[in-house]
Specification:
The complex is a heterodimer of chains A (481) and B (183).
Chain A: H1 3-13, E1 18-19, H2 22-27, E2 35-36, E3 41-43, H3 48-58, E4 65-68, E5 85-88, E6 95-99, E7 104-107, H4 113-121, E8 125-126, H5 139-145, H6 152-155, E9 162-168, E10 174-178, H7 190-194, E11 203-210, E12 212-213, E13 217-225, H8 228-240, E14 247-252, H9 253-263, E15 272-280, H10 283-299, E16 303-308, H11 311-322, H12 324-329, E17 336-338, E18 343-345, H13 351-364, E19 368-369, E20 372-373, E21 379-381, E22 384-386, H14 391-410, H15 426-432, H16 437-447, H17 465-468, E23 470-471, H18 477-480
Parallel strand pairs in A: 3-5, 4-5
Antiparallel strand pairs in A: 1-3, 2-23, 6-7, 7-11, 8-12, 9-10, 9-11, 13-15, 13-16, 14-15, 14-20, 17-22, 18-21, 19-22
Chain B: H1 4-7, H2 10-15, H3 27-32, H4 39-50, H5 58-65, H6 72-76, H7 83-96, E1 106-108, H8 118-122, E2 128-131, E3 136-139, H9 149-153, E4 159-161, H10 169-179
Antiparallel strand pairs in B: 1-4, 2-3
Classes of the chains: A alpha+beta (481), B mainly alpha (183).
């Protein structure tokens, strides 16, 4: 893409919305994953027409286009592994309509999750998926990755909050998918196909989302377990007993130690902690859910149970979980917290076994791993802590990642619960979905015949994630010899 | 050019997980909306500079000096990277390297300055001194925190904050007028 191309893009968007300085390209070449690759140019559309014009320029010239929201993805979805145009959609950030009568909201893709919920709060309603990164995550990015968060156990993932959307196709055509109604049986559910497509099928330029009332009562609790297995059994029983919790989180001993070490929160040195929350419009209903929850915990040797309806107290109880990510980043000097094998989903009955297996695999491969996550939705989070300056540690991590995904697949789990596939998880994803990869490629070809939309991701990503792109970490030269 | 001070932060730059939480409240990002103006973006640039993958430029140096030192990035950092401390040290490296930067710094209009020294006495960061030999106000670009105190205190309107970031006296007044329905 030469100077003429850059001038054309400036003609479409204005000089101020096109960046070609190496400094800008460097920044837009990475996200929260371990990958990086330089784009050729960064552009910033403000309107649907801008997006259409960019696609009309790029498509016949076979220039890759990578849509980007907050760049908070952990698997390399926004990394332009084949170069091309990075399309930063953060300036398309208007809330277009809040329709209280028909209970939907229409937004542009660059609207930040927390900003949307701040706007909805005054109407006593909220958009529930809310991933941990909701402070910066954009709605477009959340849809493209089918994000979810701590309350997904009750309110579902992003796909459960989507009613419809507008999408700009690879050739610049604009299509309307879904509807504004709560139900729709009007042919193929193409809006659902866009969810989790990671920018490979089209550019989401508008979304219609449903919202729900903010519950009047919320009660949060914590239970401690001396055995991880007991916590696992409690999870299974809770989830199969019909209790409709709004949150159920697990922290294992490594996670507890990390939080205590970094934040001095004084959490008990036990094998596992469960944090739970029930919500509703009627207090008696919440009381019943919480009572059942406590009974299940006690039955499986849970102790030290604390409960509170008070907002401040709830924040205190949850602070250990909230501070886990920073705590892991400081767990060991020179160790980095990498998002590898970080969000598989497993059956409830296998949660405890999975946590134990993770520790076993980590030990065998000389890395540190923890197990925590939204166990109410079967999501098991991990992070691999390692000395990213050492080449040998990347080999260790590669083995650990492979072993974890092989195990997850063997017990009926799935590669990603909410962080998506991108580049890092593509090898495991391809093994898991081997019988449908050709069908996925056919779908991709139907949407994007020239393969310009975020190429080299999902089923088209390389089989070795370590060498798929440059790693964003630089190896220590001494270790490389 | 050698980044002596930056090298001391090598390990801290390495643990940044690039989550992006640092830019949630970043004023510079709110103004420009480009990721290269976020604390994360600047840390990525510094990482590349540290490993000599990109050459320092005026464009890059200016970015590092575009910061109001509010510290919100430090507070929200997932990996507890001391972002503003790193930026302060790298600014000194850039100044040592001979870069002439504007950033969000305070400046002085020599034609209007009466050398009264009020800006020197009110600057809590000791970024301003009165050079009696040269009879002029000297601004330490590393120490200046772009707080705007000098601009507010200067009786002759000689001290000013770089415009374009919506915090200069003129821009703030315009915003207030706009809010009150004046414009």
């Amino acid at each position: 893409m030469g100077l003429v191309g850059i001038e054309r893009l400036k003609g479409i968007l204005g000089d101020e919305n096109v960046k070609t300085d190496l400094a800008d390209l460097y920044v837009y070449g990475s996200d929260a994953s371990v990958h990086e690759a330089l784009p050729w140019v960064v552009v910033r559309p403000h309107t649907i027409e801008d997006v259409q014009n960019i696609m009309r320029y790029a498509n016949p010239r076979l220039i890759p286009v990578v849509a980007r929201g907050a760049g908070s993805g952990m698997s390399g979805q926004a990394v332009p592994s084949k170069g091309g145009i990075v399309m930063d959609l953060k300036r398309m950030n208007k809330i277009l309509e809040i329709n209280l009568e028909d209970t939907y909201v229409r937004v542009e893709p660059g609207v930040v999750d927390d900003d949307l919920n701040r706007a909805l709060k005054s109407h006593n309603v909220f958009y529930p998926p809310t991933p941990a990164s909701s402070r910066i995550a954009t709605i477009g990015g959340e849809i493209a990755n089918n994000a979810s968060g701590v309350r997904s156990v009750k309110y579902g993932a992003v796909r459960d909050s989507i009613l419809g959307m507008k999408v700009v196709m690879a050739n610049g055509d604009l299509i309307n998918l879904g509807a504004k109604t709560r139900v729709e049986a009007t042919g193929y559910q193409l809006d659902r196909l866009m969810v989790g497509s990671e920018g490979t099928l089209g550019i989401i330029v508008e979304a219609t989302l449903k919202f729900v009332p903010i519950p009047k009562y919320r009660c949060m609790g914590i239970a401690k377990f001396n055995k991880l297995e007991d916590a696992g059994n409690a999870i299974s029983e809770i989830m199969s007993s019909g209790i409709n919790l709004s949150m159920l989180e697990l922290m294992d001993n490594v996670a507890i130690k990390a939080v205590n070490q970094a934040q001095n929160l004084g959490l008990p040195d036990v094998e596992a902690i469960l944090m739970f929350e029930a919500d509703g419009m009627v207090k008696e209903g919440v009381d019943i859910e919480v009572k059942k929850m406590m009974e299940s915990c006690k039955k499986h040797k849970g102790f030290g149970i604390e409960l509170s309806y008070d907002a401040k107290e709830r924040t205190r109880i949850f602070s250990g979980r909230k501070k886990l990510f920073p705590a892991l980043s400081q767990f060991k000097e020179y160790y980095s917290c990498t998002s590898l094998a970080d969000d598989m989903a497993v059956p409830y009955s296998k949660m405890a076994e999975t946590a134990q297996k993770i520790h076993e695999i980590a030990k065998r491969n000389n890395v540190i791993m923890t197990a925590y996550g939204h166990c109410g939705s079967g999501c098991m989070h991990t992070k691999i802590l390692m000395d990213t300056r050492k080449k040998s540690q990347w080999e260790d991590a590669k083995r650990a990642v492979f072993e974890i995904y092989e195990y997850v697949r063997s017990i009926g789990g799935t590669t990603s619960a909410e962080h998506g596939i991108g580049i890092s998880k593509a090898p495991a994803f391809k093994r898991e979905k081997s019988d449908s990869l050709n069908l996925m490629r056919a779908v991709k070809k139907a949407f994007d015949p020239n393969n310009i939309l975020n190429p080299g991701k999902l089923m088209d990503a390389p089989d070795d994630w370590v060498t798929a792109t440059s790693l964003r970490y630089r190896l220590d030269e001494k270790d490389m010899k | 050019m050698e980044f002596k001070r930056l090298k001391e932060w090598k390990d801290k730059l390495h643990v940044c997980i690039r989550c992006g939480y640092c830019y949630e409240h970043c004023h510079i990002f709110k103004i420009t909306n480009w990721e290269s103006d976020t604390p994360r973006g600047k840390l990525i640039l510094l990482y590349a500079l540290l490993h000599e993958e990109i050459e320092p430029t005026d464009y890059m140096a200016n970015k590092i000096f575009e910061c109001f030192n509010c510290g919100r990035c430090d507070a929200s950092c997932s990996a507890k990277v001391p972002v503003t401390d790193i930026f302060t040290d790298v600014r000194a490296d850039f100044i040592d390297g001979g870069f002439d930067v504007k950033g969000t710094l305070s400046h002085i209009n020599e034609d209007l300055c009466s050398k009264c020294g009020i800006c020197v006495s009110i600057c809590k960061y000791e970024a301003r001194t009165l050079d009696k030999e040269q009879n002029k106000i000297i601004i330490d670009k590393v120490k200046c925190r772009s707080c705007g105190g000098c601009e507010a205190a200067c009786p002759s309107g000689a001290a000013y904050i770089e415009e374009g970031y919506m915090v200069s006296e003129k821009e703030l007044l315009e915003q207030v007028q706009c809010y009150l329905g004046g414009k």
